[in-house]
């Protein structure tokens, strides 16, 4: 851990997981940003990494407000934070997420964090997410030579439509995930279904277990499509319920839907999507959201047929001239 100082925004650099006090400051900062923006500024995977004990894949830069600039009405003096998930073995790019407290925006905090980041890592080796495609993030990205390389849409269904029946392929049924039994089979199916996907396809057992340890995890909402004669896993729909936070009501999520290569083209993906939506409605969730890559035309078309509309966009930035990953 080390500290850098500037005229106004001292920056604390941490390799690995922050201590509980700093982690609490980050939580308060992101809660304030979420309430102000309507978007979580850090991804779920980043939170998994922040709470892990692996010192090799995480870099945190925390910018604290000086006493003369602190606003006593805020819960923390943390003005901004940059979190870098450093490249794992075999990966070419790390991923940066940066958030500034609403109280301290447009005061140079973000620029200072990126400038400090250059002392620790090679900026062209990073990609950066802007959750909600904020104007400030676009300006900051442009200032450092970054341009949009990927769009992740958030789509939303705000009412409970009359859903079609769940029509499964012959010899296939749906059951709930069983903790302690299905982890390895799910990891294999997930890797096969998302071999092309930069994040989902690389999910590890530790990632899965971290999510299973979260308060929102409900195995009854983790639906598995299995072959009847041997229980082989062919697809899945993992649902999630986001609890009410502040003024934002609870909302269900099509968390992840996957179909193994051998079962693709059979209609199983649509059947699983509908089954998961029905489950969320049965849990009292009228509104449902999901994430989908903007260029995944088949998935976007399916979700639109089911009543989803585009709600918001997360944008990944990379050095100008690069492609999304």
From TrEMBL:
<feature type="binding site">
    <location>
        <begin position="264"/>
        <end position="270"/>
    </location>
    <ligand>
        <name>acetyl-CoA 2</name>
    </ligand>
</feature>
<comment type="subunit">
    <text>Monomer.</text>
</comment>
<dbReference type="GO" id="GO:0010125">
    <property type="term" value="P:mycothiol biosynthetic process"/>
</dbReference>
<feature type="binding site">
    <location>
        <position position="44"/>
    </location>
    <ligand>
        <name>1D-myo-inositol 2-(L-cysteinylamino)-2-deoxy-alpha-D-glucopyranoside</name>
    </ligand>
</feature>
<comment type="function">
    <text>Catalyzes the transfer of acetyl from acetyl-CoA to desacetylmycothiol (Cys-GlcN-Ins) to form mycothiol.</text>
</comment>
<dbReference type="InterPro" id="IPR016181">
    <property type="entry name" value="Acyl_CoA_acyltransferase"/>
</dbReference>
<feature type="binding site">
    <location>
        <begin position="98"/>
        <end position="100"/>
    </location>
    <ligand>
        <name>acetyl-CoA 1</name>
    </ligand>
</feature>
<keyword id="KW-0808">Transferase</keyword>
<feature type="binding site">
    <location>
        <position position="291"/>
    </location>
    <ligand>
        <name>1D-myo-inositol 2-(L-cysteinylamino)-2-deoxy-alpha-D-glucopyranoside</name>
    </ligand>
</feature>
<protein>
    <recommendedName>
        <fullName>Mycothiol acetyltransferase</fullName>
        <ecNumber>2.3.1.189</ecNumber>
    </recommendedName>
</protein>
<comment type="similarity">
    <text>Belongs to the acetyltransferase family. MshD subfamily.</text>
</comment>
<feature type="binding site">
    <location>
        <begin position="257"/>
        <end position="259"/>
    </location>
    <ligand>
        <name>acetyl-CoA 2</name>
    </ligand>
</feature>
<feature type="domain" description="N-acetyltransferase">
    <location>
        <begin position="24"/>
        <end position="160"/>
    </location>
</feature>
<dbReference type="Pfam" id="PF00583">
    <property type="entry name" value="Acetyltransf_1"/>
</dbReference>
<dbReference type="GO" id="GO:0035447">
    <property type="term" value="F:mycothiol synthase activity"/>
</dbReference>
<keyword id="KW-0012">Acyltransferase</keyword>
<dbReference type="InterPro" id="IPR050832">
    <property type="entry name" value="Bact_Acetyltransf"/>
</dbReference>
<feature type="binding site">
    <location>
        <position position="253"/>
    </location>
    <ligand>
        <name>1D-myo-inositol 2-(L-cysteinylamino)-2-deoxy-alpha-D-glucopyranoside</name>
    </ligand>
</feature>
<dbReference type="InterPro" id="IPR000182">
    <property type="entry name" value="GNAT_dom"/>
</dbReference>
<dbReference type="InterPro" id="IPR017813">
    <property type="entry name" value="Mycothiol_AcTrfase"/>
</dbReference>
<feature type="binding site">
    <location>
        <position position="199"/>
    </location>
    <ligand>
        <name>1D-myo-inositol 2-(L-cysteinylamino)-2-deoxy-alpha-D-glucopyranoside</name>
    </ligand>
</feature>
<keyword id="KW-0677">Repeat</keyword>
<feature type="domain" description="N-acetyltransferase">
    <location>
        <begin position="172"/>
        <end position="325"/>
    </location>
</feature>
<feature type="binding site">
    <location>
        <position position="240"/>
    </location>
    <ligand>
        <name>1D-myo-inositol 2-(L-cysteinylamino)-2-deoxy-alpha-D-glucopyranoside</name>
    </ligand>
</feature>
């Amino acid at each position: 851990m080390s500290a850098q100082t500037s005229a106004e925004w001292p920056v604390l650099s941490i390799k690995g997981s922050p201590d509980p006090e700093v982690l609490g400051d980050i939580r308060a900062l992101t809660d304030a940003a979420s309430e102000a923006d309507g978007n979580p500024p850090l991804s779920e995977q980043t939170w998994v990494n922040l709470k892990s004990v692996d010192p090799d894949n995480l870099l945190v830069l925390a910018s604290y407000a000086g006493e003369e600039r602190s606003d006593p009405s805020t819960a923390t003096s943390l003005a901004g934070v940059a979190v870098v998930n450093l490249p794992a073995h075999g990966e070419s790019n790390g991923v940066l997420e940066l958030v500034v407290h609403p109280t301290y925006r447009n005061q140079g905090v973000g620029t200072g964090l990126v400038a400090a980041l250059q002392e620790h890592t090679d900026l062209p080796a990073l990609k950066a997410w802007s959750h909600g495609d904020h104007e400030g993030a676009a300006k900051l990205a442009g200032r450092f030579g970054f341009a949009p390389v990927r769009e992740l849409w958030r789509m939303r269904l705000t009412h409970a439509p009359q859903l079609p029946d769940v029509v499964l392929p012959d010899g296939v049924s749906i059951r709930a995930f069983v903790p302690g039994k299905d982890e390895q089979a799910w990891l294999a199916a997930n890797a096969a279904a998302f071999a092309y996907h930069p994040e989902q396809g690389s999910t590890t057992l530790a990632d899965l277990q971290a999510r299973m340890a979260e308060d929102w995890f409900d195995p009854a909402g983790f639906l598995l499509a299995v072959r009847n004669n041997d229980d082989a896993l062919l697809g899945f729909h993992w649902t999630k319920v986001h609890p009410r936070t502040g003024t934002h009501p609870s909302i269900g999520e099509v968390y992840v839907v996957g179909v193994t290569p051998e079962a693709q083209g059979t209609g199983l993906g649509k059947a699983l999507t509908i089954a998961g939506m029905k489950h969320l409605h049965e849990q009292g969730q009228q509104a449902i959201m999901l994430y989908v890559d903007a260029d995944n035309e088949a998935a976007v078309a399916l979700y639109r047929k089911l009543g989803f509309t585009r709600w918001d966009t997360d944008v990944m930035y990379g050095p100008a001239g690069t492609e999304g990953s």
